[in-house]
UniProtKB/TrEMBL annotation:
Task performed by this protein: This protein is involved in the repair of mismatches in DNA. It is required for dam-dependent methyl-directed DNA mismatch repair. May act as a 'molecular matchmaker', a protein that promotes the formation of a stable complex between two or more DNA-binding proteins in an ATP-dependent manner without itself being part of a final effector complex.
One example of a Gene Ontology biological process annotation: mismatch repair
Lineage per the UniProt record: Bacteria, Pseudomonadati, Pseudomonadota, Gammaproteobacteria, Cellvibrionales
Record-given protein name: DNA mismatch repair protein MutL
Coiled-coil parts of chain: none
Nuclease among keywords: yes
Length: 327
């Protein structure tokens, strides 16, 4: 409890996409190589995430559903070097307080697994054996069934689905090694095959950012002073939505940061005529100790220890490439 109080507790469940994000991050943390997502009615009726990760043991399952229980952090010091995506230990508990949540899981390669159901704030967790391969399936039904005030703030099914789709795109861009499938109302919307080679990665990026982006993009891979920047820089575009074609990851986490935006815009300066916007999918890798990505759990901000060096490195690396993509 002491630990929990020291960790910023953001309101996790705002809309279907925030549920999907938490569930996907859990599946990624579990070491899954395959993740399947089912969505019905914009996620309000159903969201189901199935993975082939490590699963949850029988004795840990009730714990996984309780607030501030996390298997991912031993002591506060670990926060400094959080390697896993989730660490607050309250996603499942928060979700089950506003929806009907069911988990089926197995942490072994043979034999039955266990299922648990939880609903509402006073959740009774009932455990029962169930047939399930190694891995975990989390099913969330009737989001906000018991909180009509929040349900009122939801947009149309199409809009809520679009946000789910955006979460998946971001996570697919930062986890090339995972096979993702998204089904919307029973129909396959995306199938991203695990991508090992650069060519396979470029296929996934093309599927997410559009073939036009990839056709004109230049592959970057620069290293200096303990920093590595790699990924793709594209022609500046009149994108419908700027955010669709601007993806920046720091140590695998999607971020939106003033310093990064500034460095990129400067690098693109000479080619941004007629109100175009930079288009890029970029990955910055640096020593985790030199960056704080947990400034706020939901805001995607970062704080670099040496922001000047990072800014210069980004600008220099990109400026050279942008000159090459001049149409
Ligand atoms: P956190 O991810 O912050 O630890 P969560 O509430 O999201 O907290 O999950 C609680 C715990 O449940 C996790 O620490 C993990 O041990 C377990 N868990 C949740 N989802 C999965 C999953 N898909 N595979 C394996 N373990 C899981
Ligand atoms: Mg989590």
């Amino acid at each position: 409890p002491r630990l929990a109080n020291q960790i910023a507790a953001g309101e996790v469940v705002e809309r279907p996409a925030s549920v999907i994000k938490e569930l996907l991050e859990n599946s990624i943390d579990s070491g899954a190589s395959r993740i399947e997502i089912d969505v019905e009615s914009g996620g309000v009726k159903l969201m189901r995430v199935r993975d082939n990760g490590c699963g949850i043991g029988e004795e840990d399952l009730p714990l996984a559903l309780s607030r501030h229980a996390t298997s991912k952090i031993e002591q506060l010091d670990d926060l400094e070097a959080v390697a896993t995506l989730g660490f607050r230990g309250e996603a499942l508990a928060s979700i089950s307080s506003v929806a009907r949540l069911a988990i089926a899981t197995n942490d072994r390669d043979s034999g039955p697994g266990w299922k648990a159901e939880a609903e509402g704030r006073d959740m009774a967790v009932n455990l029962a054996p169930v047939a399930h391969p190694r891995g975990t399936t989390v099913e969330v039904r009737d989001l906000f069934f018991n909180t009509p005030a929040r349900r009122k703030f939801l947009r149309t099914e199409t809009t809520e689905y679009k946000r789910i789709d955006e979460i998946l795109r971001k996570l697919s861009l930062s986890h090339f090694d995972i096979d993702f499938t998204l089904r919307n109302n029973g129909k396959v919307a995306h199938q991203f095959r695990a991508a090992g080679t650069q060519l396979e990665q470029e296929r996934r990026v093309a599927a997410i950012c559009g073939p036009a982006f990839m056709e004109n993009a230049i592959y970057v891979d620069m290293e200096a002073a303990g920093l590595r920047l790699w990924g793709w820089v594209g022609l500046p575009t009149f994108s419908r939505s700027q955010a669709d074609l601007q993806h920046f990851f720091v140590n695998g986490r999607s971020i939106r940061d003033k310093l990064v935006t500034h460095a990129v815009r400067q690098a693109y300066q000479d080619v941004m005529y007629h109100g175009r916007h930079p288009a890029f999918v970029l990955y910055l890798e640096l020593n985790p100790a030199d960056v704080d990505v947990n400034v706020h759990p939901t805001k995607h901000e970062v704080r670099f220890r040496d922001s000047r060096t990072v800014h210069d490195f980004l600008f220099r690396s990109l400026h050279r490439c942008v000159a090459d993509i001049r149409p």
